[in-house]
Design goal:
The chain has one domain: 2,3-Dihydroxybiphenyl 1,2-Dioxygenase, domain 1 (Roll). The protein is an alpha+beta fold. It has five helices and 16 strands. Helices cover 17% and strands 34% of the residues. 44% of the residues are buried. An eight-stranded mixed beta sheet has the order 2-3-4-1-13-16-15-14. Strands 6-7-8-5-9-12-11-10 form an eight-stranded mixed beta sheet, with helices on one face. It comes from Lysinibacillus agricola. It holds the Pfam family Glyoxalase. Keywords: Dioxygenase, Oxidoreductase. This is Ring-cleaving dioxygenase.
Length: 312
């Protein structure tokens, strides 16, 4: 039986100072900080999650903020561009908002869609695209109201060192459908109403270098723990070297590096971000997994103080 992921679960990137990260993604883009925790493999570093009001899969961008770390280089073996989807007719609002915060941007067209292209403060490439698909984000922050707010991911652009092999993984393993080719890009789609569009650059370029301003991995959706284990076996049977299941507290995760050198994760939709906080209080305080709770006092002294603040 062929498996099909519904789409993107989350995308995780490396950035610089955590307060600059929060000011941009919450203060400017209006996303909700749905979870502040630590990197489970490096607890001296934050792991910050932003998304829609409910923190639903397909809306979640996560960050490892390393203040004063070296700058990376976006290139092959990485997600090159992260695309967010906004309601139809709202690109003029976002043009004005980017101008208000003196964020340089440019307009472009790809596959018949108008997109706004700009960078975050640490060099990540970002796009906004307007589509009818996807429910409104009911979160309001500053001047960003549900009528104009980012709904979640539009998708991502993949830069592969071996595009033909990555294309095979997208279609034959992850179950996406090839829908169009335009210039240097081929578009693939999944079934979800957000996080469902992946553009693969078909011409390889310079290899990327991990560091600040680069995406660490892209995660795909599994329905639940049973489906997740099926995915693990399925990926393995397709010749990929997949990890054991890792408990990330808010989802279970497996990882494999596809032949184009992009790190793929498959993550479960449940349990989500409200199981250790209420839906109303998500993101308001530092949450630690049980193995680090005994070190809370030390970690709180080590981590840079942060706050979500309105910039309007």
């Amino acid at each position: 039986m062929k498996k099909h992921t519904a789409g993107i679960h989350h995308i995780t990137a490396i950035v610089g100072h955590p307060q600059e990260n929060i000011d941009f993604y919450a203060g400017v883009l209006g996303l909700r900080l749905v979870k502040q925790t630590v990197n489970f493999d490096d607890p001296g570093t934050y792991h910050l999650y932003f998304g829609n009001k409910g923190g639903k899969p397909g809306t979640i961008i996560t960050f490892f903020p390393w203040a004063n770390a070296y700058q990376g280089r976006i290139g092959d073996g990485q997600v090159g561009v992260t695309t967010y989807v906004v309601p139809e007719g709202t690109l003029p609002f976002w043009i004005n908002r980017l101008a208000k915060f003196t964020i340089p941007f440019q307009k472009a067209e790809r596959f018949g869609e108008q997109v706004l292209q700009f960078d975050d403060p640490h060099g990540l490439h970002i796009e906004l695209v307007a589509r009818a698909e996807g429910e409104l984000n009911e979160w309001t922050f500053g001047e960003v109201t549900p009528e104009v707010a980012i709904k979640g991911f539009g998708g991502a652009t993949l830069y592969s060192s071996h595009p033909e092999e990555t294309a095979k993984v997208l279609t034959e393993v992850m179950g996406l459908e090839k829908v169009a080719t335009e210039g240097e890009y081929t578009r693939y789609k999944s079934s979800a109403d957000i996080g469902n569009t992946v553009d693969l650059k078909v011409v390889p370029g310079m290899r990327g270098q991990m560091g600040v301003g680069t995406v660490h991995h892209i995660a795909w959706r599994a329905q639940d723990n049973v489906d997740h284990l099926e995915w693990q076996e399925y990926v393995m049977n397709h010749g990929q070297h997949v990890t054991e299941v890792k408990d990330r507290n808010y989802f279970n995760a497996i990882y494999f590096r596809e032949p184009g050198e992009i790190l793929f994760e498959i993550a479960t939709d449940p349990p989500g971000f409200a199981h250790d906080e209420t839906p109303e209080t998500m993101g308001s305080q530092l949450m630690l997994p049980s193995q680090y709770e005994q070190h809370r006092e030390q970690l709180e002294r080590t981590l840079i103080p942060i706050e979500v603040r309105a910039l309007d």
